[in-house]
Design brief:
- With 136 residues, this protein is mainly α.
- Helix content is 76%, strand content 0%.
- It contains five helices and no strands.
- Helix 2 crosses helix 3 (55-77) and helix 3 packs antiparallel against helix 4.
- The longest helix is centred in the N-terminal third of the chain and has 25 residues, at 2-26.
- The chain is globular, with a radius of gyration of 26 Å.
- The two termini are 50 Å apart.
Length: 136
């Protein structure tokens, strides 16, 4: 009787462990990047504050950002486009946005914006997790 009880307990414990392991394997892995939905108002406010924009400059900034975000969203939703073409289109959108910025920002503000973007990119790289190399 003890043997039967011990065998049954062991079988139940093992099956419970297997079920738990399968549930953990099925759970999606957390992503390394935490992207927020594009928010032209928030971005315009941040840029306005950082670059000390005039009210006129700030008013012109938000529509440019909103236009950029809508074009990027349309590209991402286009499943017929190849990755290479999408990358080219993204570059063109960002180039157009920079050209529009140049019409409202002073050269000094453009330099500050480039510095902000460069600094932000460095922060993103330092936060990104490193992946183990094969053979490590």
């Amino acid at each position: 009787m003890n043997r039967l009880f011990l065998s049954t307990s062991l079988a139940l414990a093992l099956s419970g462990s297997l079920a738990l392991a399968q549930q953990q394997d099925a759970a999606p892995a957390p992503t390394a990047k935490h992207h927020h939905a594009p928010n032209p108002q928030r971005e315009a406010a941040k840029i306005s504050k950082e670059l000390k924009l005039s009210a006129d400059q700030a008013a012109k900034l938000e529509p440019i950002l909103a236009d950029r975000d809508s074009k990027i969203a349309a590209l991402r939703n286009d499943t017929t486009m190849s990755a290479v073409v999408m990358k080219q289109q993204m570059k063109a959108i960002h180039q157009q946005t920079r050209q529009q910025f140049a019409t409202i920002f002073t050269p000094d503000q453009m330099q500050q914006l480039r510095s902000m973007r460069h600094h932000h990119g460095q922060q993103q790289q330092s936060v990104a997790p490193t992946t183990p190399q094969a053979g490590s």
